[in-house]
Amino acid sequence: PKCCSVLVLKWADRTDSIAFNCSCHYPPRASRMRSPRSFLAAVSGHLAGRQAPAAPGHHSLPVRTLQTLAQREPVRLKKLSAPDTGILELTLERPEVKNAISWELMTRLRGAIHKIEADATAKVVLVASSGPGVFCAGADLKERRHMSSSHVKEYANSLRSTFSYFEALSIPTIAVIEGAALGGGLELALSCDLRICGENATLGLPETGLAIIPGAGGTQRLPRITGRSRAKELIFTGRRCDATEAVLMGLANYCVPAGEAYGKALELAREMTKKGPLGVRMAKKAIDQGMEVADMRSALAVEGECYEQLLHTQDRLEGLAAFADKREPVYTGE
């Protein structure tokens, strides 16, 4: 009808529409907002105080659904432009809940990792938070309260495999930690190659305080980084450490003034993008795979295999030519 505004939502299997009577439930046509996000925000705000009646044959959506539609994506992947070509930013976008890892955030994170893996131009990934004062506070415990034991198991298995997927990326990954990195948040950081902390950072695995254990790789990655005894202390007690202590125990690579962790991470990423991309990838593979074998002899064999893969590349020849010519090399990844 001419007196109604209709919001049409197209889904994969159906189309829903919500009708609002212009005379009493929504502003006149001349004053309507054009931005979809503004539209949804206004509608959800109005409905919070008064539920609009749906027109016959129309499906009504609850206020929470409308608010969800208006929210930002929980994970954002951005490719930096020149002169930082090759650097990708993976940003957690749930600052209102300290980037708590919900099912949706985990799903979006896995999707972003898949895009990174498929991007042949990607050289380094920075993992950061959009909100000040927190990297990631861990699992979304409010969401978990409503899960059955089987769903919790599925969540933990999915999160563990997601972080392993991220760890297995062939390019360097750097966690930018400002504020709290706790539980699953620290486990995400542990799956990165480097961790850069602002001096306000707080790191810890508090799961034993909830009568559980770190379930997304913390019991395995932390001792490989800090040593077995130190990892046991931190996990058994659930104690949190600051950025200075994290550097001393090898948990973090750098501690910088609060607010400057991103700048330091970007500085390191820029240094990495100047190097031969194939060489960097093979160096990561040699280190990671070599650390997992039983003895030094097997580890050196891994190194030898990775080295051999670089012998017939154009980048290796370019590196030698640039050294002889006393100029900066121009690597193409071939």
UniProtKB/TrEMBL annotation:
GO biological process: fatty acid beta-oxidation
GO cellular component, one term: mitochondrion
Cross-referenced SUPFAM superfamilies: ClpP/crotonase
Keyword Acetylation attributed: no
Keywords, sorted A to Z: Lyase
GO MF annotation terms: hydro-lyase activity
One of the Pfam families matching this protein, by short name: ECH_1
Entry-linked InterPro entries: ClpP/crotonase-like_dom_sf (IPR029045), Enoyl-CoA_hyd/isom_CS (IPR018376), Enoyl-CoA_hydra/iso (IPR001753), Enoyl-CoA_hydra_C (IPR014748)
Similarity section: Belongs to the enoyl-CoA hydratase/isomerase family.
Official protein name in the record: Enoyl-CoA hydratase
Organism annotation: Aegilops tauschii subsp. strangulata (Goatgrass)
Source taxonomy: Eukaryota, Viridiplantae, Streptophyta, Embryophyta, Tracheophyta
